[in-house]
Design brief:
Blueprint (H helix, E strand, L loop, with lengths): L6 H6 L19 E5 L13 H10 L4 H14 L20 E7 L4 E8 L5 H11 L4 E3 H10 L11 H13 L16 H8 L12 E6 L5 E7 L20 E4 L3 E7 L1 H5 L3 H10 L4 H15 L16 E7 L4 E5 L5 E6 L2 E6 L1 E2 L3
Helix pairs in contact: 2-3, 3-4, 9-10
The structure holds aspartic acid.
The site of aspartic acid (ASP) has 12 residues, from strand 8.
Length: 356
């Protein structure tokens, strides 16, 4: 550090100077918020995206997790995102069932809800599980009763005309084929993939979720993941999103990781936990994420889940940031982008990929 730097230039350089003029506190972390791509897409009729709101709140002194949750609430409430919250594609019975979890690094809080019906913002309920109970995960009716007890209005139906129309079309085409024939184990999502090709479904949103993670200037880390899960899932199916270690994991001394994509593939290896553990061993978020994808690829052996050249035929992405403020998004193949907001503003960046 140059000796002639004035107190002002210390501050301009983002370096905190304590009250005693010659005591210099280590350089502050550059705050950043990252999210899946929909964190830079949906505004629910307002002016801010998820990452913008989270970053603005976080850098104005709001709690790091509360900022992230306020960010994902935009996407949960926006009916145009058919993979998260209100207007999410329903399950096989036409019912929107939502999953979410969150973790607060410094407080070591964690909370999740799964198969929650009737509440547009499951991330808020996950946060309340973390903040107001001794538990980490509430499901189904119990999660709904908890939400009611916490003052949330329970709505009879979270479908929009759009999500209901998509479900009706799916119903018309299928004879619930997503229950696998053990002798064939054909792909249960074939009809949904076909419907995506025809424009009924956004191909990105056969699966679809938002994961959002952030670190503030004090190095406080948190994360949240929220989803309506796999389109047309068997009622009661829970993916990776609300499961601590799968859809999200945070350790304040190391970093945060979260996921979107085929939940079953991630659940099998609890990969957000794996990503954080790889960062603990010193890996950059990018390399830690790619390590998790390698693990998923190695565990994917069924033909129905593989392309002709033996690679996973589904999407799975991880978003990770570490305690130094370094970050990355990763996926199997090129194309996916993830949302970032830091001092340089909000933007999309390309995910690093395992395969070319
Ligand atoms: N991971 C979510 C799930 O499997 C869905 C998604 O992210 O697309 O429920």
């Amino acid at each position: 550090m140059a000796k002639d730097l004035s107190r002002r230039s210390f501050l301009q350089a983002g370096i905190a100077v304590a009250a005693m003029p010659n005591i210099v506190v280590p350089k502050a972390i550059r705050p950043v918020v990252i999210a899946s791509g929909n964190g830079y897409q949906f505004k629910n009729g307002g002016t801010e995206t998820c990452v913008e709101r989270a970053f603005r709140m976080m850098t104005s002194g709001a709690d790091v997790l509360e900022s992230l949750i306020a960010g994902v609430n935009i996407v949960e409430l926006d009916p145009l995102d058919t993979s998260v919250g209100y207007g999410g594609i329903p399950n096989a019975d036409g019912v929107v069932q939502l999953d979410s979890c969150c973790m607060h690094g410094p407080k070591k809080w964690a909370g999740g809800v799964a198969c929650l019906e009737g509440v547009r913002t499951p991330s808020k309920i996950a946060h309340l599980v973390a903040a107001s109970t001794d538990h980490h995960l509430l499901v189904g009716k119990g999660a709904q009763e908890f939400a009611r007890a916490m003052g949330f209005q329970i709505e009879a139906d979270l479908n929009t005309d759009r999500s209901r129309a998509v479900w009706l079309e799916w119903k018309r085409r299928t004879d619930p084929s997503h229950y696998l024939d053990p002798s064939k184990r054909g792909g249960g999502t074939e009809v949904a993939v076909q419907m995506a090709r025809e424009g009924w479904l956004d191909p990105e949103h056969i699966w679809g979720t938002i994961n959002c993670d952030g670190i503030n200037v004090n190095g406080e880390i948190a994360g949240v993941t929220t989803t309506s899960g796999l389109a047309f899932k068997i009622p009661g199916r829970v993916g990776d999103s609300p499961i601590l270690g799968a859809g999200l994991y945070v350790d304040n001394s190391v970093g945060a990781a979260g996921s979107t994509g085929r939940g079953e593939a991630n659940l099998y290896g609890l990969c957000s936990y794996l990503v954080v553990e790889e960062m603990r061993r010193g890996k950059h978020p990018k390399d830690a994420g790619l390590e998790a994808l390698k693990r998923v690829a190695a565990n994917t052996i069924e033909k129905r889940l593989l392309t002709e050249n033996g690679r996973p035929n589904f999407g799975l992405n991880f978003y990770a940031l570490d305690a130094k403020g370094r970050y990355a998004g990763v996926g199997f193949t090129p194309g996916a982008r993830f949302a970032v907001c830091d001092e340089n503003g909000p933007r999309l960046e390309a995910c690093e990929t395992l395969f070319s």
